[in-house]
Amino acid sequence: MFKDIKSKTKSFLSKLFMTVFALSFLSWGANSYFMNTPKSIAMTINGEEVPVSELQKEYESRKTEAERQFGGKLSDEFLQTIQLGNRTVNNIITSKLTLAQAKELGFRASSKALENHIKNNPSFKDAEGKFNKEAYTRNVQSYGYSVRGYENLISAEMQKENLFDMFSTNFNNKKYLENLYNFQNEKISVRVLHVNKDAVPEVSAPTVSEIKSFYDENMHRFQTEETRDFNVLVLRASDLKDRVQISEAEALEIYNDNPESFASLEERQARHILVDSEEKAIELIDQLDKGADFAALAKANSKDAFTKKVGGDLGFFREADMVESFSDAAFSMEIGEISEPVKSPFGYHVIQLNAVKEAKLRTFEEVKLDIEAELRTEKSEDLFYDVLENVQDQIAGGSPLADIAKSSNLNLDSYAQVKQNSTSMTFSTDIMPVVYALEENIVSNEVEIDGQDAVTAFVEVTKITAPRALTIDEARARIVTELNEIALQKAMTQKAENLMVERQNTPSLEALAKKHNISNNVEVLSGIGRTGTSTPKWLKPQQVSLLFAMKAGEELNSVINTPEGVALVELISINADNATDEDLAYFQQKVSKDIQSDLFAQYMLQKRQEASIDLNVQSIEFALGSGYVK
Length: 630
Description:
By secondary structure, the chain is of the alpha+beta class. The protein is built from 23 helices and 15 strands.
């Protein structure tokens, strides 16, 4: 039954071709990685189809980041309010259009730049600060990517960054910068009088009748949640690799039968000087013709900050690594030759060719591990379908998952008392809907793991514990706690509001606190900025804005709930530090970057208006649920 599926897997030669020509700076072996297998298309952007699986992956990534920022799981209502799904859709559209525009203008990410980017990532270094291949592979796979897929992703981001850099600017109106800096960096100091539980009489314990009334009015809240015990058997082709044997003879046969797949591409090593005008490039060429040192001229004149420090040295690169006009020139030159001015999106280049590495056939020893890795991946995928068919036959015969896992030597994960919204297990997004749709002791059909090939799961619910109402005795401790909290909050609020009225005839909160013998509850907070710098979480942005508009000694006209209780807040002072030259220089860069972002946004808005964009709203709503608002 799996013959059709097997026939659709990529052939060995096509995989091997991708291994040889992938955007990879080191021959680290081919890695098995998962491709999207969408059930439908979410949107089409200038003819490029975006699968639902890609949209879901981006949405889940953004949702996880939002939950990290907000400190916990976000409700469907909140996701709908912030329109996280709409933002995700817009981000994908902008990203696709940006990359397409970067490619259209000839921007590329060289292998050298990609290598530097990855090697400089702290996550990929060992304890001694050196790049570690195993750490790199392990971390990349933990992100859900293969090495090849991750490098392609980073390469695309670098291309988009090159397009963004086209809009760089240098804003230098000093007076405007000083005024804006002073305004944005003003800080306030406030005095806070906390009315906490120590400032009010101890609340009385709730009576039996109060507990009974609260229970009756809120019985719907005092319920246990349904839980389920279940087993999950996850079958992965990657887990079967150890069962596959690859001989050197097999790898050698592939090598001998496909020599063209193992030929390295020609590489060239050159220096360049990047300038703004053709006239300047011609001037430099004249100096070189008269014997000037190329490296010295590059250090003095090139606007390529990355290479000017090394005399314009670009290292070795392949033809596809550079923009077309640069590659056309560099790959038509002789060693030692100086080019005429070469125009590119970056400006004008003067190129000196220094060395050539001819294309050649890589030896068997150089590619042996790559070939064996691909063979092992292909054979493990074939074995995967055989094992999968065997598992399905056993399920059809009525075997429970525990017996199947034992007989097939597969891992079985067991979970107990799991609630429906749990995210604690692997593939919870795909697994949990199935768990809560099954009856006891029934094994599910194959569970598709979204976005991953050669991974299949089966689920079996072993016990269902139905929800029920808590008795008043079971809920009593919780009810007493809640009633005490309500009574305490009411007492603190009433006390704070009375103090606020009294404050009108008292010179300061400090004097008011002293009068009521609660001076220990007074706190001074300094360095609060307009943008939330050093601001306690309980002081909201609109309240900070009101404080910046007040005069020293004035107080906010309402009390504020805080983690300690209820607070009154008055302004002490508004302070501004004079900007140093270093501060202004940094601020100028920030303002210039903001202007650059605005210009880029306007440019991409125009490109979006010109683009052909077709949204499959039904698929998007199905994929994102309440996070997407039409």
